[in-house]
Amino acid sequence: MNFRKSRQDDDLEINLIPLIDVLLVILIFLAATTSFNRYQQLQLTLPRAAAEAQQPDALHIAISHDGLYAVQGQLLPGTTTEDIAETLRQWLAAQRGDQAADPAESVLVIDADAQASHAAVVRVMEAARQVGIQRVHFATQASP
User: Fold this and answer.
1) pTM of the model
2) Picking from 40-44, 103-107, 109-113, 114-118, which range would have the lowest pLDDT averaged per residue?
């Protein structure tokens, strides 16, 4: 009686179940320890823009870094959206004279300081919408 098997009859197999288990554990470990970038923390450098020819009849509103507003070089006493809208109405009426022109044809140029808050710029845009000004431009620095 021969109880021993010959070496030629043995088939070697790789058991894939433990290999799959180890790979799943590694995948879970990588997913748990991965760090994600937060877009709010990115340092952005905004591009410069080529300036177009300025329109002579455009209404300019300046926004300082501390939230003060000036229309055509004159400081506004109020900083609310309603104050800005009322000032824009007065300037448009004075600019147009007695003509019944559509405010949608007027151009508003926002000269915002680089350190001005986003809320201050949005406040001016909302005031322009309330008045009916549809053409709003932003002043940029000319490319060097």
Assistant:
1) 0.59
2) 40-44
Q: Write out the DSSP string of 12-71.
A: P---HHHHHHHHHHHHHHHHHH-----GGG----PPP-PPPPPPTTPEEEEE-TTS-EEE
Per residue in 103-113, pLDDT tens? 777 888 888 88
The Cα 114–Cα 139 span in angstroms is 11
Contact (Cβ atoms closer than 8 angstroms) between residue 142 and residue 52: no
Whose tokens are 């799943």? That residue is: 24
Look up tokens 């509103």; give the residue.
61
Residue among 46, 45, 113, 119 nearest 80 (CA): 119
**In this structure, which CATH number among 3.30.70.2120, 2.115.10.20, 2.40.110.10, 3.30.420.270 belongs to the domain 59-138?**
3.30.420.270
The C-alpha atoms of residue 73 and residue 122 are separated, in whole angstroms, by: 20
Cβ neighbours for 67, distance < 8 A, ≥ 6 positions apart: 79, 116, 117, 120
The residues spanned by each domain of the chain are 59-138
Residues 6 or more apart whose Cβ sits within 8 Å of residue 39: none
